[in-house]
Specification:
Length: 327
């Protein structure tokens, strides 16, 4: 989709104003201020609850839960959200469509949490074996770029596979029913489908080295230009970062709280999930920019973007000091 330059310039102007809001953050934060943060899989809610941080925030926090980046983008465009926890592709797709939603925080795991999972009865040994298969993902999400990179590493062209875009909620059933050969999934669905029906993650070790599991917090520029909202973000991010650090240091406690008690995964499967994870690491805008540029380039080269752009323009460094002092 061509870049809507008028919308992009307007958003860029609002982003410039956000630097003034950052300097106004010393103003007292009103307890009546409400910050609406899009959550996914209720990760943020559970991190804050597990550490008790949600009880000490000096503002009202709302955490509506969403299934995937496209639905979040629609809500944030409508002004129903202030900031959002999203995967690695939604900020790129938003910017490509003319909506600049600056990234204010980045967190990543060295090992991806996405897995390529094949239907029962099909075992994919090598990424090159994806050629000729029916592959499912979610358009405009991190699953899309993960699949494209898997095909790149396997030497498989996009026109050598059948791509089936689905909603996040439909992916597990598509694998279970055999409607697709391979889908890009996350836990707990990877472990559940493996145990329930014998679905198999792709066996190629290269699949574990495709891309890190990168996620972003992005914001409406108007929110960053609001002193009270900006102050609320500056209070929210430390709580989130410290809670994530707690989950790194207390993996067993976190696994029991989130995977076993909340998601209903067995203790044995919870241990398998935790063993496959690497720690959550928060990055500044400068640290996160090179990988973001790689994602942009992958999508552009695959024809998923009409225009290649500079990743640095997707970030705000307004909250970098908050990241540095709390990670």
């Amino acid at each position: 989709m061509p870049l809507n330059r008028r919308a992009f310039i307007a958003a860029s102007s609002a982003l410039a104003l956000s630097s003034l809001a950052g300097r106004a953050r010393a103003e007292a934060l009103s307890p009546d201020t409400t910050l609406i943060v899009a959550d996914q899989s209720e990760l943020i809610r559970n991190l804050l609850d597990a550490t008790g941080a949600s009880r000490s925030l000096p503002f009202r926090l709302e955490l509506p839960n969403f299934a995937g980046g496209p639905a979040i983008l629609e809500a944030i465009r409508a002004g129903a959200l202030d900031i959002a926890y999203v995967g690695d592709v939604p900020p790129i797709q938003a910017r490509a469509s003319g909506t600049l939603l600056p990234i204010i925080a980045t967190f990543t795991r060295e090992v991806a949490q996405y897995r390529l999972v094949s239907r029962p009865g099909l075992v994919v040994e090598k990424l090159s074996d994806l050629r000729g298969l029916k592959l499912s993902y979610v358009e405009g999400s991190g699953r899309q770029v993960y699949l494209i990179e898997a095909l790149n590493r396997g030497g498989v062209a996009l026109d050598q596979v059948e791509l089936v875009p689905l909603r996040v909620a439909d992916l597990p059933d598509a694998v279970r029913s055999g409607a697709v050969d391979v889908a890009v999934l996350q836990e707990p669905h990877v472990t559940r489908l493996k145990n329930q029906i014998g679905a198999t993650p792709v066996l190629d070790p290269e699949e574990r080295r495709l891309l890190p599991a990168t996620s972003y917090i992005y914001a409406r520029p108007e929110v960053l230009a609001d002193p009270q909202k900006s102050a609320a973000i500056a209070a929210f991010l430390p709580a989130f970062i410290r809670a994530a650090g707690w989950s790194n240091d207390h993996a067993a406690d976190w696994g029991k709280f989130y995977y076993t008690n909340f998601q209903g995964i067995s203790p044995e499967d919870t241990r398998a999930i935790l063993d496959a994870q690497s720690p959550l690491v928060f990055q500044t805008s400068a640290e996160a920019t090179p990988h973001h540029q790689k994602l942009i380039d992958i999508l552009y080269q695959a024809g998923a973007l009409a225009e290649r752009f500079d990743a640095a323009g997707s970030f705000s460094d307004q909250f970098d000091p908050v990241v540095l002092s709390n990670r």
